[in-house]
Design brief:
With 196 residues, the protein is α+β, with helices and mostly antiparallel strands. The chain is built from six helices and nine strands, in the order H-H-H-H-H-E-E-E-E-E-E-E-E-E-H. The strands form two sheets. The chain has a six-stranded antiparallel sheet with strand order 1-2-3-9-4-7. Helix 2 packs across helix 3 (38-46). It is elongated. 21% of the residues are buried. Residues 188-196 have low confidence and may be disordered.
Length: 196
């Protein structure tokens, strides 16, 4: 990449420096990790040295990121509209930077099932935060009250179900691909369920 490539060149240099600073690393620390001299790294960050593809690959690895993320320029799709499932009171947003990850907002009106056999287990992980009301999270034989602004995170291989405690509640959840697929399968099989 030539130094006169303009905005992208400057953006990549700023990202390298910002990622280094965010890690709390000095020039010397990142240079050692990237197998560069500190003076070469300094010249790269300051625009006094040409950006070479092999150095960018090495720097991306040392900074624990990908080359794609280091040189990414697409900012056209900053805003994402939700996919709405009115039948189940759901709104979903895919996370473009993390394929397979989904953010979901759901309003629930029913308590969790009393019967442990109604709980579901499937591969994946789930994180959720209560936006309003109080949720009840069933994990195996344990029961948790999750209040407004409290979050819960758990592996979905544990039999689980979630519902409300004494009135409607609204949650915001983050699902990996496997957890989302498991919940989609549950909804298809049990359309009357709030969420498991």
């Amino acid at each position: 990449m030539a130094q006169d490539d303009g905005e992208l060149d400057g953006l990549v240099r700023k990202r390298i420096r910002a990622l280094r600073v965010a890690q709390g690393w000095s020039l010397e620390e990142l240079a050692t990790r990237a197998r560069l001299s500190p003076s070469s790294l300094s010249r790269i960050e300051n625009g006094q040295r040409r950006l070479a593809l092999d150095q960018l690959v090495t720097l991306a690895r040392a900074l624990d990121t990908s080359l794609d993320q280091l040189v990414e320029t697409d900012t056209d799709d900053v805003i994402t509209n939700p996919m709405i499932d009115g039948t189940h009171g759901l709104m979903r947003w895919p996370i473009k930077a993390e394929p397979g990850m989904t953010v979901m907002r759901q309003r629930m009106t029913s308590p969790p099932p009393n019967n442990p056999a109604s709980m579901r287990a499937h591969p994946g992980r789930e994180w959720l935060v209560v936006l309003s009301g109080t949720a009840v999270l069933m994990l195996g034989h344990r029961r948790f009250r999750v209040e407004i602004n409290q979050a819960a995170e758990f592996p979905t291989m544990l039999p689980h179900a979630i519902g409300t405690a004494g009135g409607p509640c609204e949650i915001l959840g983050i699902f990996d691909r496997e957890a989302r697929r498991g919940h989609h399968t549950d909804k298809t099989a049990r359309p009357d369920a709030d969420r498991s």
